[in-house]
Amino acid sequence: MQDCIFCRIVAKEAPATIVYEDDLVVAFHDIYPKAPVHILIVPRRHIPTLAHVTPEDEPVLGRLLYAARVIAQEQGILESGFRVIINTGRHGGQEVYHVHLHLLGGRPLGPMLVR
Q: Any catalytic annotation for residue 100?
């Protein structure tokens, strides 16, 4: 889907600071970081939301989490801790409709939800 910004980044048709890529996923810095380390990890194949995944997507979903661990180590936050978030749908706060994992760290992140 070339109208999807993440698909364009994966295809290297849009700029991004890529920090990791393999045969299934690509990771790059978020342009509006919410923490000192804020990296987005996306599947190469367009999947709009977690509500659209199928059993065939299991390998790429596992790779998203493995890539988060690898990148956390490379970014120096593996030992201090980090957070991973996948927003799904409008109520879940998803802004780009291409499954993506937010990897955040580099400082204490506080509570997950504001009360």
A: yes
Per-residue pLDDT of the chain (115 residues; tens, 9 = 90+): 568 999 999 999 999 999 999 999 999 999 999 999 999 999 999 999 999 999 999 999 999 999 999 999 999 999 999 999 999 999 999 999 999 999 999 999 988 876 6
110: which residues sit within 8 A by CB, 6+ positions away? none
Name the residue range of residue 90's domain: 5-105
Instruction: Specify if 111 maps to a domain.
Output: no
CATH number at residue 52: 3.30.428.10
**Which position among 29, 38, 46, 100 bears the catalytic label?**
100
Overall domain count for the chain: 1
